[in-house]
Amino acid sequence: MRTLPLNLLAGAAAFGIVSSAQAADLPSRYSPAPAYNALPVFTWSGFYAGVNLGYGRSTGASQVYDEAFNVTGGGRKSGFLGGIQGGYNYQLGMFVVGAEADLQYAAIGDKSATYRGINYRGEDDGYFGTVRARAGLAIDRALVFGTLGFAYGDIGGNKGLDAALGYRRDSSASGGWTMGGGVEYAVTDNFTAKVEGLYVNLDTSDNYALANRVVIRRDTEFGVFRAGLNYKFN
After folding, report:
1. Share of the chain above pLDDT 90, in %
2. CB-count burial class (<10 Å; 0-12, 13-18, 19+) for 22
3. Strand (E) positions, the chain?
4. pTM for the full predicted model
5. Closest by CA position to 126, among listed 162, 83, 87, 85
């Protein structure tokens, strides 16, 4: 009679082992956790290049040469400008720092000059360029920035009367400085659009008449508002 309980226990144990093995072979009722693919986070870091179009207004003075009163006069000129730019950004958290250079055609010259009652029109065509530091705050795909740096160019300086060469203007670049700011937005991971304003101050000269050369150094100041499109290299 003792063998009966023992046989029952052995049979139950064997049944349990077989049931566990069969259960292990059955598919689980729980589906695997879905794979999580994090979306890439946009960064402003990297090189970029692009184009821009805009409007400029110059406060440079037109000149009048008068034998009695020497050089007087003043005037303003506004017009179209456009060009190219390129630079590099580095993002650290929300802060972005970088450098940018640009070269612009600018039709904001046309500073005329008058000698003995005759007005000699200046030249519309000119150019300027800048090399600037940029710093800003990134809010997701938007960047608000300020900029400051060196400027150079030849913005339609005044003509003068030369005894040998007639009425002409010396073409020469002048140096100065610029500052401004703007907003840039990443439309895609590679293309960004921006609007910005700049104040540019260039030191230019001069008027001269016949053998009496009158040299005046003065500031050629102008404001710039432009929109641009950049391609960001990955």
Report:
1. 42
2. exposed
3. 46-58, 63-66, 70-72, 77-92, 95-106, 113-115, 118-120, 126-139, 142-155, 160-162, 166-168, 174-186, 191-204, 218-232
4. 0.70
5. 83
For 4, the 3-state DSSP assignment is: helix
Q: Is the CB of residue 134 less than 8 Å from the CB of residue 175?
A: no
Q: Determine the Cα angle at 205 with ends 200 and 207, to 5°.
A: 140
Structure tokens at 135: 């710093």
Quick: pLDDT tens for 164-223: 656 555 566 788 999 999 999 999 999 999 999 999 998 765 555 554 555 555 667 889
Greatest mean pLDDT among 32-41, 85-94, 111-120: 85-94
How far CA 226 is from CA of 3, 82, 197, 198, 205, in Å, comes to 101, 8, 7, 9, 27
Rounded-to-integer distance, Cα 104 and Cα 100, Å: 13
At CA 157, angle to CA 156 and CA 161, rounded to 5? 125
